[in-house]
Amino acid sequence: MASWTPHSWAQRPIKQDVTFPDQKEFTKVLEKIRQLPPLVCPEEVTKLRAQLKEVALGRAFLLQGGDCAELFDYCSQGPIADKLKVLLQMSLVLIWGAGVPVVRIARMAGQYAKPRSSAYEMVDGEKILSFRGDNVNGFHPSDRTPDPQRLLSAYFHSAATMNYVRALLNAGFADLHQPKAWDLAHVRHNHVRVEYQRIVSQLLQSLEFMRTIGADSNGNPVLNTVDMYMSHEGLLLEYEEALTRAVPTDNVEEAPRWFNLGSHFLWIGDRTRQIDGAHIEYFRGIQNPIGIKCGPSLEPEELVRLLNIVNPDHEIGKVTLISRYGAKKINDHLPAHIEAVRKAGHIVVWACDPMHGNTETAEAGMKTRHFDNIMLEITQAIAIHQRLGSKLNGIHLELTGERVTECVGGSMELSPQDLSLNYQTFCDPRLNYEQSLDVAFLIARHYQE
Ligand code: PEP
Ligand code: MN
Predict the structure, then answer these.
(1) What's residue 174's pLDDT?
(2) Residue 217 pLDDT exceeds 60
(3) CB within 8 A of 253, min separation 6: which ones?
(4) CA trace torsion 62, 63, 67, 71 (10° rounding)
(5) How many CB atoms lie within 10 A of CB 274?
(6) How remote is the CA of residue 430 from the centroid of ligand 2, in Å?
(7) C-alpha–C-alpha distance, residues 333 and 307, integer Å
(8) What distance in Å separates the CA atoms of residue 426 and residue 313, rounded to the nearest whole number?
(9) If you average pLDDT over every residue of the chain, what do you get?
(10) Closest Cα to atom 3 of ligand 1
């Protein structure tokens, strides 16, 4: 295989590419980003890589979640704190349910770029460029020309988001210890609410016990500051390249290693995972743990070839396979993928994205997802892995900490008619705060049974 550089991807055919009309300015912006400091440290990336090895070996569980398309406007106190809160609460429920530590990765602080099924769309009878994410163009139809300044803006919004997350975590997020932080009033059925309440009470009692014996103060940093890693889809390779930095190893004789220091974890989307394509070429050279989205069109032998390219040393947990077939199709695809990966001797993190294969259009024309299909894909994933002597190691969700109405169902029983109440997303429909907690409670119950 030809030698890798942070720019070798440019020799390969690329999908979902964006052309910035002002190339001069584009080059200038990239130069500027190259000079800006990293957003994360190699030590953090390496730590996550070690934790994901534990996940792959079944000794921890992965919770990854956040917006489909993060907007610059979400870089604000409330939305950041709300997202952090829901992820932390979900992780506590999962720790309780699955009985193992939870590794948390947010789709946040950089989840701006979006792949689209079509480069153009029709708006009011006019053909215009599709919205490609806040780091490329604006959602408003008059703002669709790709603007390089948005890349710079993406860097600074990522930095501000990351900074506030770090500040909140350092300050302890003590409110999770309070019963009032757990709002369960939305749960329609009494028996479900009682059950959730029982779990929360047990959780809070355990946290209180830890506090009483002093285990959650200075002596035990685990409960005071928790790890929360950041991730996004590595789509715009010029931007990713500008944040790819050489890090010397401890051994002076060894060549430096390349890390993407714009985020801890990056994944390749289902639309850009071509074996000979630019994205796979870029991803094979970075030290970060990476994800690959696996949809129904991925042949098992193709999956093995991909793994051999991005992880030739067969490092355990370096790759997270994020399957997204849909509740109706998971049975047709997951078993063959599990068998092929096992036969090839790879030990990966198996995560289930129950969102992207279950998108449908509601009567009112909005994109939505049914909570029941989301749960059905997760429970089938757990069962299929169990049947094959494998293990589901994590979930990958599109969610928000706010009370949006984008997915139907859940314990609040949101109906298709309710969607218009607070439909906010500019891309795919997300689980709201309540529905996200529902997923955690139901998985916890599943593991407890
Ligand atoms: C996404 O995660 O928002 C996405 C576009 O997913 P996929 O690549 O699986 O379609
Ligand atoms: Mn999405």
Answers:
(1) 58
(2) no
(3) none
(4) -70
(5) 17
(6) 8
(7) 17
(8) 39
(9) 94
(10) 68
pTM of the model: 0.96
Nearest CA to ligand 1 atom 9: 270
Residue type, 407: C
Q: Which two tokens stand for residue 434?
A: 């309540």
Q: Please report where in the chains the tokens 């109906």 appear, as a residue.
A: 415
> Which residue's structure tokens are 């060549």?
255
Compute, in angstroms, the gap from residue 285 CA to the centroid of ligand 2.
Answer: 25
Beta strand 394-398 with 349-352: parallel, antiparallel or unpaired?
A: parallel
Q: Which two tokens stand for residue 76?
A: 């604000």
Query: For residue 35, what are the contacts with CB-CB under 8 A and spacing of at least 6?
Result: none
Q: Which residues contact 330 (CB under 8 A, 6 or more apart)?
A: 323, 357, 377, 380, 381, 384
With tokens 């997350």, the residue in question is 165
CA distances from 120 to 115, 136, 232 (A): 12, 14, 23
pLDDT tens by residue, 60-75: 999 999 999 999 999 9
C-alpha span between 61 and 98 (Å, rounded): 8
- Kindly report the number of other CB atoms within 10 A of residue 165's CB atom: 20
pLDDT at 219: 45
